[in-house]
Amino acid sequence: MALTTNKHVLDWVKEMEDLMTPDKTIWIDGSEGQLRALREEAFRTGEMTELNQDLLPGCVLHHTAKNDVARVEGRTFICTKNRDDAAPINNWMETDEMKAKLIPLYTGCMKGRTMYVIPYCMGPIGSPFSKVGIEVTDSIYVVLNMDIMTRVGVKALRQLGDSNDFVRGQHAKADIDEENRYIVQFPEENAIWSINSGYGGNVLLGKKCFALRIASYQGKKEGWMAEHMLILGIEAPDGETSYITAAFPSACGKTNLAMLIPPEIYAKQGYKVWTVGDDIAWMHIGDDGRLYAINPENGFFGVAPGTNEKSNPNALATTKKGTIFTNVAHNLADNTVWWEGLDKNPPEDAQEWTGVAVNGKEYVANGGKLAHPNSRFTAPAVNCPCLSKEFNNPNGVPVTAMVFGGRRAKTAPLVFQSFDWNHGVYVGSAMASETTAAAAGAVGVVRRDPMAMRPFCGYNMGDYFGHWLEMGKKLGDKAPKIFHVNWFRTDDEGHFIWPGFGDNMRVLMWMLARCKGEVDAVETPIGYVPHAEDINIEGLEEKGITLDVVKGLLDVDKDLWMEDANGVEELYNEIGERVPAELRKQLADLKARLA
Ligand code: OXD
Ligand code: MN
Questions:
Q1: Is it true that the peptide bond before 88 is cis, omega within 30 degrees of 0?
Q2: pLDDT tens by residue, 58-107
Q3: Tens digits of residue pLDDT in 526-581
Q4: How far is the CA of 145 from the centre of ligand 1 (A)?
Q5: How far is Cα 451 from Cα 248, in angstroms, rounded to an integer?
Q6: Among this protein's residues, is 252 annotated catalytic?
Q7: pTM
Q8: Distance from residue 324's CA to the centre of ligand 1 (Å)
Q9: What is the pLDDT at residue 2?
Q10: Residue 328 lies in domain
Q11: Which of 91, 191, 374, 585 lies at a C-alpha separation of 20 to 30 Å from 521?
C-alpha cells in the first residue's frame, strides 16, 4: 500500500510500474518488522547469507556478480540539454538521446520481480539542509543497504510532505549486463537512472549519484556546497571542538582519518577526535556567516581490506553488528568474515569472495586474494565508538579548516596552507594523486582529481571552480582556512616516510594552531609551510621521525612544482573556457613565484 498521498510521488511510482511492469510493488516503511522479513527472504533465495549471530549480530554477507564489483566511471553520465553544462570532464549525452537509449532497457525489466519503493532522507530528519529522494529498485540488497546509509521510510515521506522537490531514482538490476550498464544523472530534472549493476556505488542512489552529483548541481543553484569530504571534530581538553573537512581521492584513507585515534601525547592531555562523516559533506553558510557542514549519510560504506585493530579500530568496531559485508571472504569454520589485512591468519576453511570454497591459507600463500580489493562493509553510523554527538545536529557543525590531499611520492610536502581562499581554490583544483600498484594500469601516473570530485561533479568543472570562488566571496573573512596534505611521501626505496594513521593528528594540530594565529610559518612559492619544529613529533623517534626527517618532508622542490603547474595548465585547457580567470591568474602567479 502506498505510504503517502503526495501526488507527485504517486504519479511517478505509477509511471515506474508502467515502465518496468513488476509483479508487485512494496513500499519501504522503515519498520524493523518489514526489514526483518526482507532479510529472511534474501536468506531463502541465497542473495545473502546470515553470519554468526553470536559474534556478528544482525550481520549478513553478500556477493555481487564477478563483473560488477566497483563504480564504473566509463559508464557514468551526466546528461543535460547543452553539452557544455556537463562536459568535458564528465561523460555527457543529451538528455532525450540518453532516455531514448535507456527506455528499451527498462521496459518490462521487472517482470516476475518485486519493485521496492524506498523513500529516503539525506541529512538529519528535520534539518533545513536535508533533501529527500525516492529510489525504486528490484534489489533487496539495495533496500537493506539504503536502510543503513540513509534515513528511510515514513519519516522521509513526512519530511517531503506534499512537495515535488525530491530526487527520482530508478534502479533495475536487469541482467547485470556490463555492456548495457549505465549510471546516469539528469541534474536538470532531479533524476537518476541506474541499470544493469548491483554494486554499491552504482545502485545506492543516495550516495555518489544524489549526495554528490545531483547535490553539487543543486548547491550551485541554491548557494551551498556538496563535497567529497570527511568531517571530523577535534575536542580540546577545555571541551572546545574544532571541525575540519577533508577531501581525498577514493582509497586514500578518508575513513581512517575521519576515525583517527589520537596519539598518546594528545590522548593523555585529554584531546578527543569525533567523527561526523567519512565521505560526503553538505555545507551551508549559517546565520553567523560561517560555513556549516552536515553529513547527508547515516552509515559508512567503507573499504574492508586493510581495516584492522591497528589501522582503524573504530571502523572495525562499527562493523560488529547490523552490518552488510559485500565481497569479503567467508570464514566457514565460525561463519564470520575475513579480508586481507584483517589479521595475519587467513581462515583455512574459507570461501573466497566469488563464493568458491578454498583452503584460505594455501590460497593466500599462493598469491590469491580471499576478499576482493574493493570489498566493503555497510555499517550503521550509530555503531561508531567515536561518533560525534553533533551527528544529528540539524544545523551541522562550523568548519574551521578544509583540507585537500592526494598521494604524491615526491612533489607535495607533508602540509602547507594556502595564502587565502582563492589560492586555496586553486590548490583544490590542482589536486592530484599518483596511481598505486593496487589498481590496474601503470604505477606512478598522475591523475588530476580536482577537489576529489572528478568522478562526482554533476556539472561543468569550470563552473564548479567558479562556484567555489563565489562561496569564498560570500564567506569573506569567516571562510575556513584551506590546507593541503600529503601523507604519502616515499624514500628512495619507495617506503612511506610519514607514519600516517593516528599520527596525522599532529599535522591537524598545526593547522588548528594556524587558524588560531598561534604559530607563524615559512612563506614559500606554493603557500605557507610549517617551521619543522612546529610539528609535534614527541614519541615518534621509534618510527624513524626526527627533526631532520620532518624538514625533508616539508621540502618544496621548485622543478617538480613547475612540472605540476604544467599539469594543472593541461587540465585547465581540457576544461576549457569556463575555467575562471581568477584561477588562470592563480596559476600564472604560482609559475612566476617558482621561476
Ligand atoms: C568512493 C567511495 O569510491 O567512497 O569514493 O566509495
Ligand atoms: Mn568516496
A1: yes
A2: 999 999 999 999 999 999 999 999 999 999 999 999 999 999 999 999 99
A3: 999 999 999 999 999 999 999 999 999 999 999 999 999 999 999 999 999 999 99
A4: 15
A5: 7
A6: yes
A7: 0.97
A8: 16
A9: 87
A10: 300-383
A11: 585
